[in-house]
Design goal:
Distance between the termini: 53 Å
Order of helices and strands: HHHHEEEEHH
Shape: elongated
CATH architecture of the largest domain: 3-Layer(aba) Sandwich
Number of domains: 2
Strand content: 15-25%
Bound molecules: zinc ion
Radius of gyration: 17 Å
CATH topology of the largest domain: Trna Endonuclease, Chain: A, domain 1
CATH class of the largest domain: Alpha Beta
Largest sheet: 4 strands, mixed
């Protein structure tokens, strides 16, 4: 069993696709739910279930990378975005003299007691921590959440 689990983890972490493909998770019998499959989330869940590894936030640089599509969408809408490399502000979003800190976190740690480091960002109008799994499935929704922070 240990060998099967280790091979599965290698398969999930070793693929080059964004979320799932025929090389890792997709096959004929799960085609109805392939849009919801995520090899990163699967690897994180497997590591937690088998080895007790608690999922944690990625580095600020990796969070900025995960947020790159949101960043492009916001920039098209006139917002100024900067990847800072800071834990309290992976992505700095500015508009009309206001500043909002944006970060993201793995979907597996979306619990009521989870507090993203951006909650302690100083001198900001607001902050927003986005669930990475939900971000991937609803980019327009995330865009609107950022816009609403500037409007409030
Ligand atoms: Zn793949």
């Amino acid at each position: 069993m240990q060998e099967i689990l280790e091979d599965t983890l290698r398969l999930l972490e070793g693929c080059n696709c964004e979320t799932s493909c025929t090389e890792c998770l997709n096959h004929f019998h799960n085609q109805h739910l392939q849009s919801r499959l995520d090899r990163h989330l699967g690897a994180m869940l497997l590591k937690y279930a088998v080895w007790g590894t608690i999922p944690s936030c990625a580095s600020p640089e990796m969070q900025a990378e995960t947020l790159s599509q949101l960043r492009a969408s916001l920039e098209l809408d006139g917002y100024r975005c900067t990847a800072t490399g800071e834990e309290v502000m992976p992505l700095r979003v500015e508009h009309d003299g206001r500043l909002v800190a944006v970060g993201c976190f793995p979907g597996l740690i979306h619990t009521s007691n989870f507090i993203h480091p951006i909650a302690s960002a100083k001198g900001v109008h607001g902050h927003l921590a986005l669930n990475e799994y939900l971000l991937r499935s609803d980019l327009p929704g995330a865009h609107l959440m950022v816009k609403e922070l500037f409007a409030s």
